[in-house]
Amino acid sequence: MKKIYFLPILLVFTILASCSEYSKVIKEDDYVRKFEMANDLYENEPTNASRNKAIGLYEQIYQRLPKQGEGELAYFRIGKAYYENSDFYMAGYYLGVFPQRFPYSPKAEEALFLSAMCSVHNSPEFSLDQLETEVAINNLQQFANRYPNSPLVDSCNNIIDGLHFKLETKSYEAVMLYAKTENFRATVSSALVFAEDYPMSVFREDVQFTLVKNSYFLAKNSIDAKKIERTQEAIERYSTFVAAFPESTHIDVLAARNDEMIEYLAELKRLGK
Asked: How confident is the model at residue 270 (pLDDT cuts 50, 70, 90)?
């Protein structure tokens, strides 16, 4: 029985001793010891709890030695520890400020890149508000502009492409949602904006099809003063769709409605509407 419980008990005492030592060091004024313990916790004990302890020590070191090498490393590692602990808001702050406080540091490039990556991690799924995504794109672009020769620029460009696709997907889904709820005016408006913003989109054909179809419904449901104008727009958009997608499976469906639109337009003109 003694052998069975010896190791767990020893482990408990080791942990308690370690905690006691940390409590002692963080309260004393020996900054050499603080720096040694912070580095040991950060480098040799890669756990969230150890990194949090290291942050506490590094904060004291930076406050005491803000302009010295220890303070510089401490500030960088505070941000890096938050990053490794997935606290991207705190990490983004420290890593984003680091290049401003230490513009000539060899770690400034890494800090700015990781700061941009914090914004990437904070970017939500496409169905949610995309402000963080736009911030991430801006931050990555700023990094690429500041360090155009960095080997990380290719990664930045790939990530930016992925973030742009997220915005594109959100815009596409908005068009489809308006169409699903039969909000014809909003569907047409959002489809036109989408076509302007994403002219080479993989969703282009679906959006253009939705635009033509809802232009038809919008014309039919408009007030008399708007019917001729909107019917003409529907006919023009059909022609544009056929020219852009001559092999589309949607053409047969739209062609029948376009013929109806042409007849409808003639009738409107005859009635003087």
From this structure: confident
Residue among 127, 33, 35 at smallest CA distance from 75? 35
Q: 42 Cβ partners below 8 Å, 6+ apart? A: 50, 51, 54, 58, 77, 81
d(CA 49, CA 56): 11
Of 64, 103, 61, residue with least CA distance to 81: 61
**C-alpha to C-alpha distance for 19 and 148, rounded to whole angstroms:** 45
d(CA 54, CA 70): 13
Q: How far apart are the C-alpha atoms of 138 and 84, rounded to whole Å?
A: 23
- Expressed in angstroms, the distance from the first to the final Cα of the chain is 99
pLDDT in tens, 74-101: 999 999 999 999 999 999 999 999 999 9
Coil vs helix vs strand at 89: helix
Identity (one letter) of the amino acid at 251? I
Residue in the block written with tokens 């109806």 = 260
User: Residue holding tokens 């994403």?
Assistant: 198
- 254 touches 241 (CB < 8 A): yes
Could you tell me the pTM of the whole model?
A: 0.83
Residue given tokens 């960095």 in the structure block: 150
Coil/strand/helix, residue 57: helix
- Find the helix packing angle between 153-180 and 204-220, rounded to 10°: 30
